[in-house]
Description:
two-stranded antiparallel ribbon; 10 strands
Amino acid sequence: MENYPILDRRDFIRKVSLAASIGIAGIDLPDRNSILIPSSTPRNQNLLPEISLGKHKISRLICGSNPFLGYSYLGQHTDKQMKEYFTPERASDLLIKCEQAGITAHQSSSRFDYMDLLRQKGSGMKIFTLLSDKEGIKPAIEAVKPIGLVHHGGVTDRLFAEGKADVVHDFVKAVKDQGILAGVSAHNPDVIKRIADEGWEVDFFMCCFYYLTRKMEHPELLPALPVGSYHFMKDDPKTMTSVMRQVKKPCLGFKILGAGRLCSNQNEVMAAFRFAFENIKPTDGVIVGMFPWYFDEVTANSGYAREYGKLK
């Protein structure tokens, strides 16, 4: 991924203006290059750019669910911390805060225990849910009342590799039979291209910026230490965003921050948001998981989406 350093006074002033607009409380971050924003600055809420998924209008920034599930991609200690932090109360509170910041959609997955609580708090959040097989369709609809269901990316990649793409296609048809949106998630860009080329009845795609399910012949020869079994290859986002631009259906990019690997400071996070929005279609959005234990990520991320996700 490209770097976007602050090089001149004009660019610096623009970034400071962005920092002021998103109203993050002045928090002492570990990296001195991180942007500190005065807490007295008023917040502009409900002004995020929107896209359409079928008949539904949603913000271009969507709150993901991996932190709720303890999927940090950073190791078991962070996994455990996320699981312990995100009680049903805190998960629902985060989504309410997202709505207040203008984020109107949530990508959920296998955990539904915060859904009733979210609705009891008056949320109008639009939700779409990842599933791995047809058997979960009706229970998920009953529990979540989603606007759509999406075939799980890791399972999608595996089934395509095994020559069982028809299983994924059957899932899409079964979801469509329920009268809601049907999506397919994948990490392998060739899977997205194939589905689009074959004209499946898909309403939208979820596209991982990193091809995490690729089979490496000699991973031990890579000049880096992976975190667990995951290899985040630097040029993968360019490949996937190229595919997203070619696909006519709306695409939602996920892991735009490399599962925390592009979060050393807020300039790095800002650059990742900028890259994402500059390299996807105007009809596309991004899904970002948020873990506010340390920093007000909701306010920061909504500000970056508001700045870089503006429709031109």
